[in-house]
Design a protein that fits this description.
The chain is an alpha/beta fold and 326 residues long. Helix content is 36%, strand content 27%. The protein contains eleven helices and 15 strands. Strands 2-3-4-1-5-12-6 form a seven-stranded mixed β-sheet, with helices on both faces. Strands 9-8-10-7-11 form a five-stranded mixed β-sheet. Strands 14-13-15 form a three-stranded antiparallel β-sheet, with helices on one face. The chain is globular.
Length: 326
Amino acid sequence: MSDTLILAVPSKGRLQENVQAFFARAGMPLLQARGARDYRGAIGGVENVEVAYLSASEIAAALAAGTAHVGVTGEDLVRENISHADTRVALLEKLGFGHANVVVAVPQAWIDVRSMDDLDDVASHFHSRTGRRIRVATKYVNLTRAFFARHGIVDYRIVESAGATEGTPAAGSAELIVDITTTGATLSANALKVVDDGVMLRSEANLVASLTAPWNAGTRAVARAIFDRMAAEKRARTMREVRTRFSSCDADLVAKAVELFRCVAPFGGPTSSGMLTLHCPPDTLHGLATFLRAKGASMVTVGALEYVFASDNPLYEALEARLASS
């Protein structure tokens, strides 16, 4: 069994740019030896990693099949394309980009349709009046069926959309749609509106691990190294380093600062010279500085952090837990 970890990332578009920036921030730039047309690559700083450049939907399929160990793709594609997704993959962490909602949208002219219950009434009336079921255009067949079933809607049929889904009602090939939206501007431009309780999924890019891939000691060690770097960058991005020195500082003062300002003392209490280092969320910095000066500190400095490596590795621990239970 190979010790090489297969990492699947998007091959094009804004999602690829965001993924490249994400790995670069963690000190692991994505490398393509022959440029953008090379669909295999590596990552800087970590050995035994093969990067596979795939479409977002192909990434979901590769993770489900176990031909990739780890990938970055949207939760919408995981939920749509992988049957019983939670038994085959582990969504380890939301990455803060690639946001899109999967929504039910109807014509704005349907002024009486504000909820899924209203849509159920319209669908039933349409069926009884015409003998036909109302048509729903979508690329999200499985998500649509599950969502409509939860709302008890049965008088509909799905028209699978291969192109611009938002244009199908105006073209007369469907009465309503299920599609993704970020701002809603495209829906509005096509005279569509989102049903009030019609947000099926609030999706974003996720770090996803395959539970069916051939994990061994080698690939687990590679995953641990990758996730350790990711966690170190995240800790640094969400904290600032606060440093001060004063003679009256003691363990009780540090404990109070930790309690009030959500900070941590990474190296314990003050040194013998009174030097104290704290890591603090940006939104509590001024309050902490005010508190420390009131306790006798004459000067408090604040600096950015690049990486913070800790003894725990939460992403890898989450992966191990899922592999153990699968």
